[in-house]
Amino acid sequence: MDKEEFRKRAHEMVDWMADYLENKEKYPVTPKIEPGEILKQLPSSAPEEGEDFDRIFADFKDVILPGMTHWQHPSFFGYFPANNSEPSILAELLMSTLGAQCMSWLTSPAATELEERVLDWLRDAKGICSTWKGVIHDTASTATLSAILAARERVTGYRINQSGFEGFAKFRVYSSEHVHSSIDKALRIAGIGQFNLIRIRVDDNYALIPELLEKAIQADVEKGYIPLCVVSALGTTSSTAIDPIDKIGDICQKYSIWHHIDAAFAGTALLLPEFRWMNEGHEKADSYVFNPHKWMFTNFDCSVLFLKEPQHLIKTFSLTPEYLRTQLDEQVNNYRDWGIQLGRRFRALKLWFVIRHYGLNGLRKKLRHHLKLTKKAVEWIERHPNLEILAPVPLNTICFRFVETGLSTEKLNQLNEKWMAEVNQTGLAFFTHTKLDGKFVIRWVIGQTDVEETHIKNAWELLLEKMPKKENVQG
Ligand SMILES: *Cc1c(COP(=O)(O)O)cnc(C)c1O
Question: Which residues carry this modification: N6-(pyridoxal phosphate)lysine (predicted)?
Fold first, then answer.
């Protein structure tokens, strides 16, 4: 593509992008599509000759777009959001234009130093200890795996990296029973084994019970296991339960166990002073992950791992073959040594754009707006005789379900699942679910960049309209 054509196409495309962002709520949140429907519209082999750009772009609009879930739709209330914002999108455009591969300081000094600076900003804005250091990973899954590998190497004197597991007893990792599946996956990959993830029972608020954690550790020590790491959650994925990290931290210190805090979603709330209580005791932990790509208006992917002592991570991952060695290695951060990937994207740029565009106060204002909308939705649900909220709502995730006296849990589960499916089928809003104590609950997460009161009102009316009817629920 010659540069003149690029200029023309880029202008067209930016116009399309602006139109999309203006009109995003006019799309169905989720596509009405059968498996294979997109695939059969795509030719079974790659074109031998280059195609006209008009046709490529037309196919994007006609074939691809109808098969997309619109994650930026203000009525997307499912999972956790992956919200973005205009400054973040613009930064992504610049990043892809530069096309830099930022594995070392030398491969783009600005990328490394900007990453250091914005992560210090974020650390301080969230009230994390000022001596900690951060690194950007693609996802919380990778960040947590990296932390667990660093924990494994620290406890074994960096020997498993060298010579494998021979001679070591089995390791144990602890979490609440509401742990995210990425921890199971990390234990598979780290060679620790998923069965060695010990899930500690939770209290009525779905938070880990520290006394039971300590008992489990003691029992394992007696049996000869090596307690390696506790992964606590600030904001579980099911219900945003807040584990008591202060007490967990005491236990970890007592038994010399690595404490990793998974604040993937809720970590953004720490920008608000009124949520600092959640972080109390974090200074006793070793690592802490949170995803700006969930609730901080920064395009997926961008996950931040903070560490008390980055040298454990660096010692775990650093490998410098001759072709990567530079004369400056002693003086600079080479972020390739802070994780699994060698090649790295320039993700700090979008964080920098987002933080500077909104300012910390602008970010706080948006978060408080989401929290205020959530309070409204909670009030509506609480006032309804056939609805109940099954978990505390410390942030912006509401777990609720339809109830009717005399119906079994099984029947209620069926009714709630059907209700949610009917709401989602309209394409006007999108919810996902979880199970709490075997009960199917709908999760309503209010965290989209452009969500306003009209969106939650419309969603509420839609929920009421599709709610199981009295005459249909009996029997
Ligand atoms: C979303 C989430 C994760 C996984 O995040 P990825 O960045 O998609 O890997 C891990 N832990 C918790 C608590 C989460 O909410």
Answer: 294
